[in-house]
Amino acid sequence: MFTGLVEAIGELVECKPTSGGVRVRIGSPLAAELTQGESLAVNGVCLTVILAEAGEIHADVGPETLRVTTLGSLARGTLLNLERPVRADGRFGGHLVQGHVDAIGHVQEVRADSSFRWVTVSFPSQLAPYIIHKGSIAVDGISLTVAGLGTDRFDVQVVPHTVENTNLKAAQIRDRVNLECDLVAKYVVRAVELAGLTLAPLRAGEVAH
Questions:
Q1: 116 and 145: one domain?
Q2: Where are the beta strands (DSSP E) in 18-149?
Q3: Is there a domain that residue 172 lies in?
Q4: Domain range for residue 173?
Q5: How far is residue 62's CA from residue 47's CA, in Å, rounded to a whole number?
Q6: CB-hemisphere CA count at 13 Å for 164?
Q7: In the 8-state DSSP scheme, what is residue 29?
Q8: What's the predicted TM-score (pTM) here?
Q9: pLDDT tens digits for range 24-61
């Protein structure tokens, strides 16, 4: 389990094809604190550390993960958000993040607001029931608050610290990002479905704040 509070930024050194998947090599000082078999969230995707030495982290990515995340399409040198699992005896910040990506979104707009930054991200229709105004969502593993919500996109306002200490510093229009919806929302929606109730669709229109 993760919290969406990014510990470090890594850099993709290599993405090498394997039998059915790929092996990624990530450059990061965090490698010195990891051991084989540990979990690590990479852009919001929970991976298992295969090797950690000489300032690099190695992890295998399977075919299903390649299908539902952005990891298989990233170019060498791409900045990656890294987070180790939360400790049971530590403070809990952010929100509950499993590292199980629900869908891929696309950056639609990036705009400055003083030293802050607004980012608009589009999402596929199947995620609509799980995203609420002022609710939590993980974008490339970053715990963010939905500040504006439309039928197929949401706005988040990013504080300067998060901009500087995550891959959002390099975010550009049309970038693909991993999205994970709030865990509690998933259980609520499932309970509603099992009760035979229907969810009312959002009205079409602009993003509302």
A1: yes
A2: 22-27, 39-42, 45-53, 56-61, 79-83, 103-113, 116-122, 136-139, 142-145, 148-149
A3: yes
A4: 103-194
A5: 10
A6: 5
A7: G
A8: 0.91
A9: 999 999 999 999 999 999 999 999 999 999 999 999 99
